[in-house]
Specification:
Oligomer: single chain
Largest sheet: 2 strands, antiparallel
Distance between the termini: 71 Å
Strand order of the largest sheet: 1-2
Number of helices: 6
Number of strands: 2
Strand content: under 5%
Helix content: 40-55%
Radius of gyration: 18 Å
Structural class: mainly alpha
Order of helices and strands: EHEHHHHH
Length: 159
């Protein structure tokens, strides 16, 4: 079973009610802090879950394909949901995958988590973990960028 809702804006998970296909990964965004995703098994389960999602809208298709900007847009369009629905789980799962390796998506993840209807302590812990992950990703990117530039000039001296 695949398709979209009436406005064509929602991805759906194939085979709902059948074998798991990593579907439990749809709740990872609201259960696990960023530092848990160093575990290859969790990333694999997340990938398996996303591989079983199909969509009709171009933006959902781009997010499913790994486009971080599309995933951020989907998550921001959720607004402030009164409750966590299947649609929220889908959009936030797309953002979770993007946030693993993209600092801007990790920042968006922290922002979106802080607006979710989760237990306040859990919400705070998760949002903080993604904010720290965003800082770490940005630091890593800057470090790799400076390594490519070679050693810093020695005060401009020529000898």
């Amino acid at each position: 079973m695949s398709g979209h809702d009436h406005d064509g804006d929602q991805g759906k998970h194939e085979g709902r009610g059948q074998a798991d296909h990593g579907e439990n990964a749809l709740v990872y965004w609201r259960m696990l802090p960023a530092n848990r995703f160093v575990e290859a098994e969790l990333r694999e389960q997340l990938g398996t879950c996303i591989s079983h999602i199909s969509a009709a809208s171009e933006e959902w298709c781009r997010a499913i394909g790994g486009d971080a900007a599309a995933a951020v847009t989907l998550a921001l369009r959720l607004g402030t949901p009164a409750m966590v629905s299947y649609r929220v789980d889908l959009a936030m799962t797309m953002l979770l995958r993007a946030a693993l390796d993209d600092a801007a998506a990790a920042t968006a993840m922290a922002h979106r988590l802080s607006a979710m209807s989760l237990h306040p302590r859990k919400r705070s812990k998760l949002a903080t973990s993604w904010l720290l992950h965003s800082i770490w990703l940005d630091s890593r990117r800057r470090s790799q960028s400076s390594d490519k530039d070679g050693p810093a000039p020695n005060g401009g001296d020529t000898q």
